[in-house]
Structures are given as C-alpha cells and as structure tokens.
Amino acid sequence: MSNPNPNPDEHGEEITGLTAEQRQAEIDALNNTHATDLTGTAAAKLAARFEPVVPDGGRVGRAITPHVARATTIRNTVRMWAPAVLATLTFAVTAMVVDLPGPLAVYGAAIVGYAWWMCAGRPGPIDTIRMCCYRAADGARLVKRHVTRLAVRRGAYEARRTNIRAASK
C-alpha cells in the first residue's frame, strides 16, 4: 500500500534543516519556559535532587553487554557464511549417499567453490590466495594451541602419576 505524501509527524520522524546551534536554541527556549514555571516550587526542589540516569540496564545490562555483542557478531558471521556451509554439506551428503559420476562431482565441487567465493565477497585472485593463507595460518594456530594444551595436561598427569608411584615406594 503506497502513501504518496507521508506526514513525518505521524511516523515519529524528525525532518528538519536546523543546525546544531538552532536546535540547541530551541531546546534552551523550551527549558527556560518550564524553568520559570518551576522556580521556587516543590517540584523544582524535587527535580534538583534527581541525578540523570543512563539507561544501561543496570548491573545485569553491564554484565551481558559483551556477550550480546559477541552473539551479534556470531549471528552476522553465520548469516554471511551459511550458504557456503549449506552447499558444502549438501554436496558432501549427496556424494556419500549417491554414487556421483565424474562430471557431476566436478559440477558439485564447482557449485561449492562458487558458494564459498560468493560468501567471501567475490575477492580477486590475490585476495583469495591471501585469505586462504590467513585461514590456514589461523587453523594451524588453533591446532597448535590445542596440542600445546594437551601436552601441558599430559605432562601434569605424568608428573602426578610418577610422584604417586615414587611416594608409594
């Protein structure tokens, strides 16, 4: 349904060509009008005691803000890479269930590659190589971190095991 002449007042929009100084002058004029009405009243005394409140959600809001930001980035990442992941999974499941002839397997692999290329933002050849190298380095760093953690845990286990045997003798 079209609305050829929308009224900004009805939609909560503020369409003005005021500069920052003009807008501040309007706000000051409104505040001064109300300030003269409140001068010397109980409401003015009550208003003077209040401190401005920043709506940050309190203790709970401050505690969950980093997690919400991380969830938002995870959601955006999933939305960006989902077509490539789904194409890969579909091709992998199809290749496991159905005996694909050679040309069809090449065609499916091409579709998967195209999906990853599109989700990556259609980079050029140099950017593609650079991105693949970065991903491989990130993957190697992740494997190294897990192997190091496993080696440390294994070393601690061996130290405990050998200390128990030495203490029992």
Condensed summary:
The chain is an all-alpha fold. The chain has helices at residues 8-11, 20-38, 42-49, 58-97, 102-119, 125-168. The protein contains six helices and no strands.
Report on this model:
- With 169 residues, this protein is mainly alpha-helical.
- Helix content is 79%, strand content 0%.
- It has a domain at 18-50.
- α4 packs antiparallel against α5 (102-119).
- The longest helix has 44 residues, at 125-168.
- It is flat and about 85 Å long.
- The protein starts with 7 loop residues before the first helix and ends with a helix.
- The mean pLDDT is 82.
Counting DSSP H or I runs of 4 or more residues, the number of helices is: 6
Structural class: mainly alpha
Mean pLDDT: 82
**Residue share in helices?**
over 70%
Can you write the helix and strand succession as a string? HHHHHH
Beta-strand share of residues: under 5%
Q: Which outline best applies?
A: flat
Distance between the termini: 88 Å
Count of strand segments: 0
**What oligomeric state is this?**
single chain
Q: Radius of gyration in whole Å, from Cα?
A: 32 Å
Largest β-sheet summary: none
Low-pLDDT residue intervals, each spanning 5 or more residues: none
Features:
single chain; 169 residues; 6 helices
Record the SSE blueprint.
Elements: H1 8-11, H2 20-38, H3 42-49, H4 58-97, H5 102-119, H6 125-168
Helix pairs in contact: 4-5
